[in-house]
Amino acid sequence: MQFKLPELGYNFNALEPAMGAKTVEIHYTKHHAGYLNNLNNFLKDLSQFDKMSTTDLMKNLDNVPSKILASFKNNLGGYANHNIFWRGLATGTTLSGTFKIALENAFGSIENFKTELAQAAATKFGSGWAWLVLTQQNELKIVTTTNQDSPLMGDKYANASGYPIIGIDVWEHAYYLDYQNRRAEYLENYFSILNWDEAARRFETKAE
Ligand code: MN
Questions:
Q1: pTM to 2 decimals?
Q2: Lowest CB count within 10 Å: 58, 111, 116, 189, which one?
């Protein structure tokens, strides 16, 4: 198997009350694992992609057979996006340093940044993601993607591009058990479990 489920690094209940243990457990062991298994199954028949990272795969979507492209893309994005999502959650981290300054420069203030990100996530119609990305011009920007599209797939495949710093899952499975239809409340509480250290690491290193 080319890919595996990453360690969460925390217990299912670690993010309560913002994100309940049952939500984390089902999201991780069913949804994330489902995308992973489907992706690995596709890759068994695609030897040209041996040893490629998920980011490399996203840059090679032109080379995926067209009859499986839609499903391959969905499962690749679903696997990779959730890797970013889980690492991007924690309790007790704080925003500081060069990343904080860069956010203030880009959005005027941290409060304004949070408002804009939450707004983009709240108004994303249907299932998808809201992202803070670093553009090729090294600018911090908020974008959204549909379904499991990733900004790493680029404009052609995701109608968005950039290197993800923060990714918020706004599929109902991410919040329904805890918040039912109240997506805005999920987003409000999301900031209390945002892993600022991981976001800063991604901003500084642009590494997976
Ligand atoms: Mn999800």
A1: 0.97
A2: 111
> In whole angstroms, what is the distance from residue 24 CA to residue 6 CA?
14
Structure tokens at 147: 């379904």
Distance 105 CA to ligand 1 centre (A): 31
* Distance from Cα 67 to the centre of ligand 1, integer Å: 25
What secondary structure letter does DSSP report for 61?
Answer: G
- 114 in the Ramachandran plot: left (φ > 0), alpha (ψ -120 to 50) or beta? alpha
- How close is the Cα of 59 to the center of ligand 1, in Å? 22
At 75-123, the pLDDT tens digits run: 999 999 999 999 999 999 999 999 999 999 999 999 999 999 999 999 9
* Mean confidence (pLDDT) of the chain: 97
